[in-house]
Design a protein that fits this description.
Helices cover about 20% and strands about 25% of the residues. The protein has helices at about 60-65, 70-75, 85-90, 90-105, 115, 145-155, 250-255, 305-310, 325-330, 350-355, 385; strands at about 35-40, 45-50, 55-60, 120, 125-130, 135-140, 170, 180, 190, 200-205, 210, 210-220, 235-245, 245-250, 270, 275, 285, 310-315, 315-320, 335-340, 365-370, 395, 400-405, 410-420, 425-435.
Length: about 425
Amino acid sequence: MKTEVNQTHNPALRSWVKSANVQSSDFPIQNLPFGVFKRKSSSEAPRVGIAIGDQVLDILACREAGLFKNLADVAAASCGNSSLNHFMSLGRSHWSALRQRLSELLTESSKEIGRVESALVPMDQAEMLLPAKIGDYTDFYASIFHATNVGSMFRPNNPLLPNYKYVPIGYHGRSSSIVVSGIPFHRPRGQMKDDASEKPTFAPSKALDYELEVGTFVGSGNTLGAPIEISRAEEHLFGICILNDWSARDIQTWEYQPLGPFLAKNFASTISPWVVTMEALAPFRAQAFSRPEGDPAPLPYLFSVANQQVGGIDLFLEVYLSSKQMREKRMEPMRLSRGNFKDIYWTIAQMLTHHTSNGCNMRPGDLLGSGTVSGPRKDSLGSLLELTWRGSDPLMLPTKETRKFLEDGDEVIMRGFCEKEGAARIGLGECRGMLLG
């Protein structure tokens, strides 16, 4: 079952950290996402912090000040590590206890302001690192709109393969090339073959694309041979981030048959540095995707009433593009799309359950990608492949530049936020990446 709404979600809560009370802030007191940081230009060891307004709260420093007890203290002790993995492994009771205590310490009525204030680090003085040591990364294909669009480009008469509506499709990605937001990357080289050529060539990709995804971190894992049932899947999910799964479409087209994505996908994937916990998302849980009449029901191992009722997340996702020319002219990034995570065909609980259904063991810090999140409208499509329809309908930028795919110097910015009446707005922060060439 999902985490229930509790006092930490109260929209009336305000923090003594004034920047957390700004209506547009991604990080109000109702959010409290976790990340790993160190002070810029320092030799200090990385440690776990939470985002509150425009500040990072050093949890280890708070523990050294004697601000935690019982389960919250055990949880805080794990936050002196250079990753969230140990904390993730402790399970929901520890996650919730620490969240509850952090909320108490940061609320404007706190009696511990003096002792907590010294543990704050301004975000502009913090260097954000990967939040976890990602042992394994699996990327799914959970948006039926994306799957149908891509399928129709290559199989106009049969865009969806017969298994799509029965099984959450996924492939094993490469965790070593996952980087944190802000780290640039180079254009990949690879084999590609166009329709007019007799033989493939090896060259830099000419069809570099982004993919707007949601990444989900596994918390407590399962032992080899012990599947996670759908009714218990949420107990094993720690939180989410934004994921940009960069893709070289020309390399992908040539190499993906018969075994699927390979070098077209594993040269770089970018994630946002803050992990928004499943508990923070409780007010924004939504009904799972409503399958059209005639679609098959999920097989019994992938079905529960609770998952159908609240397995979705009402999460808005946006993509912006800033070209080199735009930055030189001091133009704001151009929004390319806005979609919603509710539009995915399979829930993250179903993805995790299917992943372990054969006995596969998951470990704390493992990352599940949702696959490109696209909606039913053109302005909700999560990749350039779809927005430009394989380059046949180029985008026009404010500088009069056109884009079929990404050019050198382009920066892609992804943002995510939850917003609804009766709840405090929370955000996932930004996921930025620049193509160097």
